[in-house]
Write a structure and sequence with these properties.
The protein is mainly alpha-helical and about 400 residues long. It has one domain (about 5-395). The protein contains 20 helices and no strands. It is globular and about 75 Å long. The N and C termini lie far apart (about 45 Å).
Length: about 400
């Protein structure tokens, strides 16, 4: 099936966006995280104790010092200007993010660039309604930018001179993208891995040179302080740690979280690295993204924008190689994202209400975690199945 002309695809994306903005989902955007960026930037200009301050909603600044220095540009303009710029930027970057996903190998080897542009625009018309994208927009978050930097990097040829720089920059803004540097290393793209690490290390050194006190506070322990990131049981926290807290009705879940994070982390990265070494960055990226989101101490739902390209890539695979299992997985993942079901439970009303959810509510509240674990389990089964079939055949002879 050939996608429509790019102008038609762009018009469909614009129309879908217009409907979203006019719907109930387009109202009440508080831009709370954008406000934190602005105030963090102002604190950096003032030389304040950045990691002691609390911002709107008692939120702390959880990003590296270099990010605060970059956010100083936001603090010198009006909030309304920043809201518009951040929203327009994310809207424009969304199809770019999906386009770079379609340039990953092996898809990039058979899908022409022009068709990839059309598919990315068409997919954006649907993706704009997904809960992680919607939450990114209403909070004024930078997650689409982070995902675009990562995918641009991975879509480049392995011998590209500056491959790895995008992942290094993404890691400088938020620490969690650093797992993709590990992915490059494990998939034996040593030069790209080194480039990402050098860029990240350079950002740390620059932070110390420009803001030594804040850098000392952040790297001295603030970046791993669990008290600074918010309630772990919050349904917006779609990680193993958050799921354990909601399941066990307790925030004292460190042992359970660490044990399962190690198992999922090792298994997920081995699967991702295996795919990457075989030239399959489509699976490698998808598995690495899901692994990072699951094992992180905090993965707010807007962080799951990083999984949206994986959903597009799954849809493309189902179109090329139709299967009942693939179609069901695509429908389930799409339904979870479009329904916003993680918000179908009481969120801190009454206080810490997520620690008292019943069985069905737990399914809603842990939907992304369950989806991610299911995807990793299916990938593990597909990887192990040929070896199991070979062993079964040998035993039968």
């Amino acid at each position: 099936m050939r996608p429509p002309h790019p102008v038609v695809c762009a018009a469909l994306y614009a129309a879908s966006l217009a409907v979203l903005l006019e719907s109930h989902l387009g109202h009440g955007w508080g831009f709370v995280d954008l406000a934190v960026y602005r105030k963090g930037g102002q604190a950096a200009l003032d030389g304040a104790h950045l990691y002691v301050l609390r911002f709107p909603g008692a939120l702390a600044f959880t990003y590296p010092p270099i990010a605060a220095l970059l956010f100083t540009s936001l603090s010198v303009t009006r909030m309304a200007v920043d809201e518009l710029a951040m929203t327009v930027g994310s809207i424009l970057l969304l199809p770019a993010m999906l386009y770079f996903a379609l340039r990953l190998q092996p898809v990039g080897s058979w899908l022409p660039a022009r068709r990839a542009i059309r598919l990315a625009l068409l997919a954006s018309a649907g993706a704009i309604w997904l809960e992680p994208v919607w939450t990114t927009l209403r909070y004024g978050q930078i997650d689409v930018l982070i995902a675009t930097l990562i995918l641009y990097d991975l879509s480049r040829p392995d011998d590209a001179r500056w491959k790895g720089v995008g992942i290094g920059l993404a890691s400088a803004l938020k620490l969690t993208p650093a797992i993709f540097a590990l992915y490059l290393l494990l998939s034996r793209r040593y030069r790209a891995a080194a480039a990402s690490m050098i860029v990240f290390a350079g950002s740390v050194m620059l932070g110390f040179a420009v803001s030594p006190r804040n850098s000392g506070e952040f790297w001295g322990g603030a970046f791993i302080d669990p008290q600074r990131v918010g309630r772990i049981e919050n349904t917006a926290n779609q990680t193993l740690r958050g799921a354990w807290a909601r399941l066990l009705h307790s925030t004292n879940v460190e042992l359970w979280w660490l044990a399962t994070a190690v198992i999922v982390g090792v298994a997920g990265m081995l699967l991702a690295a295996r795919a990457g070494r075989h030239g399959d960055d489509v699976r490698g990226f998808s598995l690495c993204a899901l692994t990072g989101l699951l094992i992180s101490p905090i993965s707010w739902s807007h962080h799951w924008v990083l999984a949206v390209p994986a959903l597009l890539l799954l849809g493309l695979e189902v179109l090329r190689r139709p299967s009942v299992g693939g179609a069901l997985a695509l429908v389930l993942a799409g339904a979870i994202g479009l329904s916003h079901m993680i918000w179908w439970v009481p969120v801190n009303h009454p206080e810490h209400s997520e620690l008292h959810l019943d069985g069905l509510q737990l399914v809603f509240a842990d939907a992304y975690v369950l989806l991610g674990l299911g995807a990793l389990a299916i990938a593990a089964w597909r990887t192990a199945r040929p070896a199991l079939n070979t062993r079964a055949s040998a035993l039968a002879q």
